[in-house]
Amino acid sequence: MARILRGEIRWADLNPVRGREQAGLRPVLVLSHDVFNERSGIVIAVALTSQEPRAGFPLTLESRAAGLPKRSWIKISQIRTLAAERVGKRVGRAPEEELAKVIEGLNEIIGG
């Protein structure tokens, strides 16, 4: 499998899920560092959705990444740790400013 890199948007299989977690095959934004992804066999990512959200930042952020199949929002509150086997084909790459904004949103949510 190709290296999974921080800032990439990739397809991932999020099933099975519980409650209000994002489900199905959908794009995710990889947040964890390259070395962590390679050595641990897991990836920390946040889900994307094409459903226009009711909540704004810090819970969601519209993605400007090239390559997305439709208008998409990053669901910052939907952070997941995924086995690398769940992560598939690369869709695109988030701009550095967008990745920084997602990290800022996570810090607001968790009190960093």
Give an account of the 3D structure.
The protein has a single domain (8-110), classed as SH3 type barrels (Roll). The protein has 112 residues and is α+β, with helices and mostly antiparallel strands. It is built from two helices and six strands, in the order ββαββββα. The protein has helices spanning 34-40, 96-110, and strands at 8-13, 25-30, 42-49, 60-62, 73-83, 87-93. The chain is globular, with a radius of gyration of 13 Å. It has a six-stranded antiparallel sheet, covered by helices on one side.
Would you summarize the structure shown here?
This protein is an alpha+beta fold and 112 residues long. Helix content is 20%, strand content 37%. It has helices spanning 34-40, 96-110; strands at 8-13, 25-30, 42-49, 60-62, 73-83, 87-93.
